[in-house]
Write a structure and sequence with these properties.
Layout (H helix, E strand, L loop, with lengths): L10 H13 L7 H14 L3 E5 L2 H10 L8 E5 L4 H8 L4 E5 L21 E4 L11 H11 L2 E5 L7 E7 L2 E6 L6 E5 L12 E5 L2 H11 L22 H11 L2 H19 L5 E3 L6 E2 L5 E5 L7 H10 L5 E2 L8 H5 L9 H9 E4 L7 H15 L1
Parallel strand pairs: 2-3, 2-4, 4-5, 5-8
Antiparallel strand pairs: 1-9, 6-7, 6-11, 8-9, 10-12, 12-14, 13-14
This protein binds pyridoxal-5'-phosphate.
């Protein structure tokens, strides 16, 4: 079976891990944590990085920095992972949903303004499968209404967005550096993995201080074990940061390999009339985190059936997200009430992603392409 993802770890990771073991710095202090935070924040064009234990809590901490009042609202796409919704719910807020753009599969900025209310505090765009959300119109809306942007960049390490021009030269800016706060995941299928891990980025010293407090039980500086606020233990370990830093040091190669895999799939599959691919916009540079395809409604198969047929040919796949408006728990809690988001619904029924991990060999990719083409031609 060709796995949907397999990470690629090397000698440098072993060397850094061995240093942690030799020196005893295995917990949440040690040189790798701060170095990794600074390196990743700097790469994304942000001042501060706060490493946490996964991408889900990175979102929760980012929202936590806003100190929501109960009932405050955060606008997000329905087509995303439930981590976005839980980040808001665990902070006493309410997720407010919009549909996706049918071409980029990311939050449709044209649908955001009508969802702004007096309670809106933030907009949370998600760079789906590492295609950047269209940030300029979102930033414009956020500025006009005085709300914050929290980017969910969990899947978008190294992806770039074209944001205006300086001196006639187009300005490409990295995902994770386009909002007020951003959240990354370093789960095993991400371009950088720490096993489990995440990071919050921001330019605001206040938000950075709040994020650091929230990840570490809100300890107070004046006296140990004295608390005026409730926090969490969301710390990343030095062992995990050692892995992250080792991969950061060869991140250029990682991005180049992912782009090669993505572009090879596009070339081989773009002519198939029975599928739609995520169309990379002229203002976007994807890193092809996972390579997705969406079956046309007119095709006799849905994504579940295609996944079964591919599995029979030794190709593992994953279904797309199920939209937040269709999640039984959010319906049960009354967070969503029979809303319909047709693009999100189509993506979740008809979409799946193909093996795209860094360890995928050219031979394996050829096999995947052959299997998809033979089933869909
Ligand atoms: C868009 C998005 N946001 C958040 C997360 C949560 O990250 P984690 O799995 O590290 O908790 C993921 C996970 O892959 C994701 O895809």
């Amino acid at each position: 079976m060709i796995p949907v993802n397999e990470p690629q770890l090397g000698e440098r990771e072993l060397e850094y891990l061995a240093e942690c073991v030799r020196t005893g710095w295995v917990s949440s202090a040690g040189r790798f944590i701060e170095t990794f935070e600074e390196a990743w924040a700097g790469y994304c064009g942000m001042k501060y990085g706060v490493a946490v234990s996964n991408g889900t809590v990175a979102l929760e901490v980012a929202v936590g920095c806003l100190q929501l009042e109960p009932g405050d609202e955060v606008i997000m796409p329905s087509f995303t992972i439930i981590s976005c919704a839980t980040a808001v719910l665990y902070n006493q807020g309410i997720p407010v949903l919009v549909d996706s753009d049918p071409v980029t599969w990311c939050m449709d900025p044209r649908q955001v303004e009508s969802k702004i209310t007096a309670r809106t505090r933030a907009i949370m765009p998600v760079h789906i499968y590492s295609h950047p959300a269209d940030m300029d119109p979102l930033r414009d809306i956020a500025e006009r209404h005085g709300v914050v942007i929290i980017e969910d960049a969990a899947e978008a390490h190294g992806a770039e967005y074209l944001s205006g021009c300086e001196g006639g030269i187009p300005t490409w800016r990295r995902c994770g550096g386009l909002g007020d706060l951003s959240a990354f995941s370093f789960y095993a299928n991400k371009l950088i993995t720490t096993g489990e891990g995440g990071m919050v980025l921001t330019n605001s010293p206040e938000h950075a201080a709040k994020a650091r407090a929230l990840r570490n039980l809100c300890f107070r500086p004046e006296r140990r074990f004295y608390h005026t606020e409730l926090g969490h233990n969301f710390r990343l370990t030095n062992l995990q940061a050692a892995l992250g830093l080792a991969q950061f040091e060869r991140f250029g190669e990682i991005v180049a390999r992912k782009r090669h895999i993505g572009e090879t799939y596009t070339e081989a599959l773009q002519e198939l009339p029975s599928i739609r691919l995520q169309t990379i916009q002229p203002w976007a540079r994807s890193v092809y985190w996972m390579y997705g395809l969406v079956l046309e409604e007119s095709t006799s198969m849905d994504a579940k059936e295609l996944a079964q047929r591919l599995e029979a040919q030794g190709v593992e796949t994953r279904p797309f997200f199920l939209g937040m408006h269709e999640q039984p728990i959010l319906l049960e809690l009354g967070i969503v009430r029979g809303e319909r988001y047709p693009v999100a619904e189509r993506l979740s029924r008809q979409g799946l992603y193909l093996p795209s991990g860094l360890a995928l060999t050219d031979e394996q990719q050829k096999h995947v392409i052959h299997a998809v083409r033979s089933l869909l031609a």
